[in-house]
Write a structure and sequence with these properties.
Layout: H1 28-31, H2 59-88, E1 127-138, E2 156-170, H3 184-215, H4 240-291, H5 294-307, E3 309-315, H6 322-335, E4 340-346, E5 363-368, E6 374-382, E7 402-409, H7 411-417, E8 427-435, H8 440-447, H9 455-465, H10 496-517, H11 526-536, H12 548-557, H13 565-576, E9 580-585, H14 591-614, H15 638-651, H16 654-662, H17 671-675
Parallel strand pairs: 2-9, 3-8, 3-9, 4-7
Antiparallel strand pairs: 1-2, 4-8, 5-6, 6-7
Helix pairs in contact: 3-4, 4-6, 10-12, 12-13, 14-15
């Protein structure tokens, strides 16, 4: 998908004669926002004419390319049929296996299937982590039967106090494609460079061809290329033979670049589609889980309908090695959610016509779902802004497709549980990603932040002292990686600049959303304004009061001392604004467990304080979303939070989730890794795997090391 290039005659290829090729607007490259504004690929005439340079693809190359794409298309079709079948029926044979052994498409995908190719577009280890806080209250005493000697019997009833919902999952990354060449960000950066090189070579070739034609006295109409530093001078310079060699050299260069770019574009498109599919499923899960909480949905429906549903992602990956590639995949796929809108409608499957016409250039498909509430999903894809003839700029990194998701719900549920503002209304998504590494490499980078000149030597010395040689490729080391059993980690220091960039961008978006939902004039502080502007740029309305703690944490982390407070404050702000939180690490079971249990404990202690202060249970309500937040005198006790979080990590649901993923109820940390975790995220010693990489403590390789 891209514009046709003009040949030296100034006539677009394919527009003269009968060789016109119809535009293709529904291909994978188009939907993934990857136009190629370089020479258009058509069959090569194999003959050089003085008046025509020739097209930029040989018959043999295009045949090979077509065979490969046809094979990929068949694979996609098979995957689609498998997914549809799994969504509408249960595979009884697959359900006879333990959850961690189910490595085929299914309603639940364990983290042990990360590298299984057929499961690449499916999110893995995705759960809605919920807690409902209720208070037991004494009901009316029941008198004993007449004549009975039994005493009065006291009964209790429960009153809803508050609820807590988070989605926990593995990173929306294409693990099956590996990360040896980086993730989407590095691949896309390389592609942009190739496109620019193709343009320059094409224009240089045009200038050489013009000189060649001038030297032969040919008459022609020349469309002068516009390229920085280019020249359209008629000075021939050099002999005709030398000029002709230049034409062929540039033409060969264009061919090679075009072929590499075509191959890379396809790799990126497939990777984008896999990652975006995961991110879309996770976002839809979060939205539906919040809609199903009646009190929360009623409280926030108007905000979601007007300003969009806020999605705050809390990433816990380190910015080094393969996890840097995972961050790139996840950030790119989360950014694509800007083009997604979700609508809830009543089930109309009994009257639905499969041949219903859709908008021009749209691609719509409805899939039945085996559920008592959700009956079907209808997905409509629209290409990104612009079409084949007017594509978005190649260098633009946010050329996302427009995706409309319609969810058909049971009529009874729809009528009784869906607030009017959300009925048949497209709700846009507002995704923001905050990222903070919490492993040993991030710790080392933080401790050495003020001595950058010697950081490499200090890190190497530190590794030698603790016999931590994993990064050098030694498989017989004294430690393990967090989650990956088969992959070795790469060497290298964490790229804190990348984390700072992600957090800064997320802060700007979250600050704008807060001002939209709760408008408030914020006076500026001259002492901090200079530092704020240097990091965040111009914030039109200043820093919203709700975001002041987050603002300070991001500023401190910009000094290369990455702190966990960024995730903590981002989560609290998101909850205050009625948004949904997603927590992820590589597998979504170990680091993620530490974070979600921390948040769960904070939630419980705060609600208990609120109840004790009020003297009676009170359900949270915010009838006026534009009102400033009420002052809360509650102060957190870090020691008490850690104590109760430890209880939940030991006896709560997260250990069972580890078993569901890898077959053993243990967190995949060892004592050394636990030592370098942030204090509030340290796992209980009694429930960590505590083994050496390549060790035989657990059979069948159950724990991912």
């Amino acid at each position: 998908s891209g514009p046709s290039a003009s040949n030296v005659n100034g006539t677009p290829n394919g527009t003269n004669g009968n060789s016109s090729v119809p535009p293709i607007e529904r291909g994978l490259l188009s939907f993934m926002g990857l136009p190629f504004s370089g020479p258009h690929t058509q069959l090569d005439n194999l003959t050089f004419f003085p008046s025509k340079i020739g097209d930029f693809g040989s018959y043999d190359h295009l045949t090979t390319l077509l065979d490969a794409r046809a094979s990929d298309a068949r694979l996609f079709a098979e995957r689609s049929q498998t997914y549809v079948r799994c969504s509408s029926s249960i595979d009884e044979q697959l359900n006879t296996l333990w959850p961690h052994e189910r490595k085929l498409p299914n309603a639940y995908r364990p983290s042990s299937s990360k590298t299984v190719k057929i499961c690449s577009p499916l999110p893995f280890n995705t759960h809605v982590h919920s807690m409902v806080l209720e208070e037991l209250v004494e009901a009316t005493p029941t008198p004993p039967p007449h004549g009975s000697s039994a005493s009065h019997r006291t009964t209790f009833a429960s009153r809803h106090v508050a609820s807590f919902h988070n989605v926990t999952c593995g990173a929306s990354a294409d693990h099956s494609a590996k990360f040896s060449d980086g993730g989407l960000r590095r691949l896309e950066s390389r592609r942009v460079g190739l496109v620019q090189a193709a343009r320059e070579s094409y224009m240089a070739m045009g200038l050489s061809a013009k000189k060649l034609l001038d030297s032969r006295g040919c008459k022609y109409i020349y469309a002068s290329p516009s390229v920085a530093g280019g020249s359209t001078s008629g000075n021939t310079g050099g002999t005709a033979a030398a000029i002709e060699r230049n034409v062929h050299r540039y033409r060969t260069q264009c061919l090679e670049i075009h072929r590499e770019c075509a191959s890379l574009s396809w790799v990126i498109a497939v990777r984008r589609s896999n990652c975006f599919s995961q991110a879309l499923c996770i976002a839809l899960t979060s939205y539906l889980s919040h809609v199903s909480d009646a009190a929360r949905a009623v409280r926030n429906a108007a905000v979601w309908a007007t300003h969009g549903y806020l999605l705050t992602y809390e990433g816990m990956l380190s910015s080094a090695g393969k996890e840097m590639g995972m961050i790139e995949d996840a950030s790119d796929s989360i950014g694509m959610l800007h083009g997604v809108k979700i609508r809830l409608v009543v089930d109309d499957s009994h009257t639905h016509n499969n041949n219903t016409s859709t908008a021009p250039r749209a691609c719509t498909e409805r899939v039945a779902v085996d559920s008592t509430v959700v009956k079907w999903l209808e997905i409509t894809w629209l290409p990104p802004n612009g079409n084949r003839r007017n594509p978005p700029a190649v260098a633009e990194q946010h050329s996302w497709p427009n995706v409309l998701i319609t969810v058909g719900l049971d009529a009874t549920y729809y009528g009784s549980r869906i607030p009017p503002p959300l009925q048949s209304t497209y709700i846009s998504l507002v995704p923001v990603l905050f990222q903070m590494g919490v492993d040993i490499r991030q710790w080392s980078a933080n401790k050495s932040a003020n001595t950058k000149a010697t950081i490499k030597e200090k890190k190497q010395k530190h590794f030698e002292e603790i016999n931590y040689n994993t990064y050098a490729g030694n498989t017989n080391t004294a430690t393990s990686n967090y989650d990956e059993e088969d992959e070795e980690e790469e060497s290298g220091l964490p790229d804190n600049d990348r984390l700072i960039g992600l957090n800064t961008e997320a802060f700007r978006k979250l600050n704008a959303y807060a001002h939209a939902v709760r408008p408030q004039h914020t006076p500026t502080n001259p002492q901090t304004q200079t530092h704020t502007n240097a990091l965040f740029g111009d914030l039109p309305n200043g820093v919203h009061p709700l975001l002041q703690p987050l603002h300070q944490s991001v500023l401190r982390s910009a000094g290369n001392t990455m702190e966990h407070g960024v995730l903590d404050h981002a989560a609290k702000t998101c909850a205050t604004l009625g948004g949904g939180s997603m927590i992820f690490c590589k597998s979504g079971k170990d680091r993620t467990a530490m974070q979600v249990t921390l948040k769960q404990t904070q939630f419980i202690l705060k609600e208990r304080f609120r109840l004790s202060s009020a003297g009676q249970p009170q359900t949270q309500t915010h009838s006026n979303t534009n009102a400033p937040p009420k002052t809360n005198t509650y102060t957190e006790d870090a020691n008490e939070i850690y104590r109760q979080a430890t209880v939940m990590r030991t006896y709560g649901t997260r250990l069972a989730l580890c078993e569901k993923n890898v077959g053993q109820p243990k967190y995949a940390f060892n004592s050394l890794q636990a030592k370098f975790m942030p204090k509030m995220l340290k796992p209980p010693v009694g429930v960590i795997a505590g083994f050496l990489k390549g060790g035989k403590i657990f059979t069948e390789g159950a724990i991912e090391s």
